[in-house]
Amino acid sequence: MRQIARYIDKISFGASTIASGAVLLLAFAVLLDIIAREVFGVGYSAIYELAWHFFDIIFLFGFAYALATDRHVRVDIFFARFSPTIKSLIRLNSLFLLAVPFLTFFLLDIWQLVAQSYIQQEVSSDPGGLKYRFIIKSVLFVGVMLLLIQALWLAFKHYRKLAKYRFKLFGFWACLGFVIWWAYQTDMTFFVHPVILLGVVAFGLLMLGVEVAFVFGGVALLFAGITYEVDIAVLEMLPYRTYGIMTNFTLLAVPLFIFMGLILEKSKIAEDLLLSLGRLFGVVRGGLAISVVLVGAILGASTGIVGASVVMMALIALPLMLKHNYSPQLASGTIAASGTLGQIIPPSVALIILGDQMHLNMRDLFQAAIIPGIILIGLYIAYILIFALADKRLAPAITLEQPYSEVFISALKAIIPPIGLILLVLGSILAGVASPTQSAALGVFGAIALAWWRGVLSFALLRYAMGETVMLTSIIFLILIGATAFSLVFSQLGGGDMVLGFFTQDTMNESIFVLIAMAIIFVLGFFVDFIEIIFIIVPILLPIIDALAIDPIWFAILIAMNIQASFLTPPFGFALFYLKGAAKDLISTGVIYRGVIPFIILQLVALGIVILFPNIIFLGR
After folding, report:
1. Residue 45 near residue 53, CB atoms below 8 Å
2. DSSP notation for 169-196
3. Measured at the alpha carbon of residue 69, what is the angle toward residues 63 and 72, in degrees to the nearest 5?
4. What residues contact 505, with CB distance under 8 A and at least 6 apart?
5. Residue 272: which residues within 8 A CB-CB, separation 6 or more?
6. What average pLDDT does range 478-491 have in this prediction?
7. Are 176 and 42 in contact (CB under 8 A)?
8. Could you give the CA distance from residue 255 to residue 437 in angstroms, rounded to a whole number?
9. Which end of the chain is flanked by fewer CB atoms within 10 Å, N or C?
């Protein structure tokens, strides 16, 4: 049995190694495409298609690895407090009852997709494109098959842990099977609207800590099978929708921006920047906190990775601020809030995913996000200055041990490299010179160049960055596939029409809709991650946005600002976990909660400003 376990894990980790190599190959392929188009004025379809082939390998071959290492996203509200036995019980049932049936059904439909492509000898529709489309579609089959094998093995492993409860397990499964059969035979949805039941079941499973992707996929399959309103054949469209994701050139920017951010995280550029700006602004009250906000903004514009930003600033800035007698609440709140700026300041992974789901022009969306980001930064700095001036003991100035001119020059040297990278990446997008994917590739090689310039570039650094890129990208796109299945069933059950009918009734107008939508997203942010909100809630709201003739760019900015707050809302904001994990015993959880509340209020104030003055977002154009 141990040999089987080692063999399965070896295959999963081997596939992840291939995917890791594809990360660097993806960056090279996009760079070659840029050179061919911009330097030689010739576009090669083969290079363009090769780039999204590498992209597909990254997330498809990373599925099983993410499951093997238990890195898939789940809501940990209650799960983290469960005993090991209860956790194994939840994992067993999530794998056996949700993941395995969904993946099996999905795999069978993918096989038909691959077989159809092979029989028809499908080739690229672009002149000079790659031949034999069935090859890349076979990668989808292999990736899902590896995930299914890993899920079966883990389910068996958890079953062995719960061997003494086997009779209770079989009894539970038998009762559950009877309930599902009874629901199908009696059309239980006659008593409860299927859309409401669908939402309740999905939300309940999420709160239990079941993996998000498996909740959406498994529940979609369940309701497609037991409700008369939907035929299970609706899920036969899922492989075609997934292939659409695989060929989406905009989404190639996601792993590239993640890769760039991880390289910068390990190159220690941010550490030098934080220490240099801390000395530069520290001579005024609240100066250390202001430097944290500015570093958070710079990191947001160059990496956009919340966890890395919060942890890095907690490890460096928090001890420094506490050493100089800063209020622990102000210090913790500033670090957590500044680390989340990467969600609204472009180029942001959240904005890229949001823009893709809402079918928006990325350049317009990035331009619209600039002013809201500046408003947030300004509000944070204003609050810190007022806080410091109100009581000089809470954020005192520091005394420099070297001439200020030397401090200024040191800060200038530290800030030029990341600012140069920001100008390269963000400037190329806003100037219309490059697409987000092309600018992300330029950013990758810019980050590698900075790491080399600092003498920290190594194979170990690249291996770490590529491995984490595969992990994070796989998690995001498996949730997207599950959410796509969920949306297919939700739409067929009439969920879209129900929501549209509610928001377009005579008593409803644009203002009421915006307030209700923002309130729902804000409340959901207490419990679920921004990825689930974007993949599930946004597609539901899109028809209403069209019906009410709301500017989709403006509404997307509102959503982005709202989900940024979800990282801070106690008690389950991810930034709070990152901060507490890095700070350890330096500050208590209660201090962190009290520290972030003013910044949550400031985020709501900024959101209110953009709602009241919608044209303000166009000042960045």
Report:
1. no
2. HHHHHHHHHHHHHHHHHHTGGGTS-HHH
3. 55
4. none
5. 414
6. 87
7. no
8. 9
9. N
